[in-house]
């Protein structure tokens, strides 16, 4: 549920043992007008080979991979947490600028059967032509990964890539209180420490996060989410509000059509 999306076109399909998505987008976040003629090309494939084979234990075991490639022209970048707190600065006004190609790639795996879902993902990015405020220019590499676990307290199935449908949609007059889910996640993001040491003005090269949450599925299209997040910075950033750690409580109401 991210409002900071690109404009473009996408083709997708389901082959039973695999799902795919291929698209072309403008690469200008937040529905903004593109600043150059280059487009982002993206691809994503999800494999569930054991579903077709009918192997009960491995039926909901899946793997995926994705990637994208595009070009950026004089694009300001920011390294921020979910609250908008900047944890790395390469420049007085921003976290630096990119004037070059941007490549992103990742791999994922999950196991989801019945009310339990386990999922992990690794992702990386290479920002070519990244320029810091002190004039240092080069290729900046960013790596991240996470692992999470989700469990439906009310027993609903939670297949990966599909919505949760509560057994008893919210209707207090008839005893329906929706579906309830708990979850926990550990994640880490790291920026090339060599480049950070050479060019960063303030900040740190790594953030580790632990979060837990409660999801309330009122109907198949309406979800209320509450999360507690603890962001731990590798070292004091020197930035206001981001000394060694950050504690967040996030609330989100999502409507899915």
Search tags:
single chain, about 260 residues, mainly beta, Porin, eleven-stranded antiparallel beta sheet, three-stranded antiparallel beta sheet, 2 helices, 14 strands, globular
Shape: globular
Count of the separate structural domains: 1
Task: Please tell me the overall pLDDT.
Answer: 85
What is the CATH first-level class name?
Mainly Beta
Structural class: mainly beta
Q: Determine the strand fraction and express it as a percent band.
A: over 45%
Distance between the termini: 12 Å
What would you say this structure looks like, in words?
The chain has 257 residues and is mainly β. The chain has one domain (69-255): Porin (Beta Barrel). Helices cover 5% and strands 57% of the residues. The protein is built from two helices and 14 strands. The chain has helices spanning 49-53, 193-199; strands at 8-14, 18-25, 40-47, 61-76, 79-80, 86-89, 97-113, 116-131, 137-152, 179-191, 202-203, 206-219, 222-233, 245-255. It has an eleven-stranded antiparallel β-sheet with strand order 1-2-3-4-7-8-9-10-12-13-14. A hairpin with a 2-residue loop joins β12 (206-219) and β13. The protein is globular. The termini are close together.
Topology:
Elements: E1 8-14, E2 18-25, E3 40-47, H1 49-53, E4 61-76, E5 79-80, E6 86-89, E7 97-113, E8 116-131, E9 137-152, E10 179-191, H2 193-199, E11 202-203, E12 206-219, E13 222-233, E14 245-255
Antiparallel strand pairs: 1-2, 2-3, 3-4, 4-7, 5-6, 6-11, 7-8, 8-9, 9-10, 10-12, 12-13, 13-14
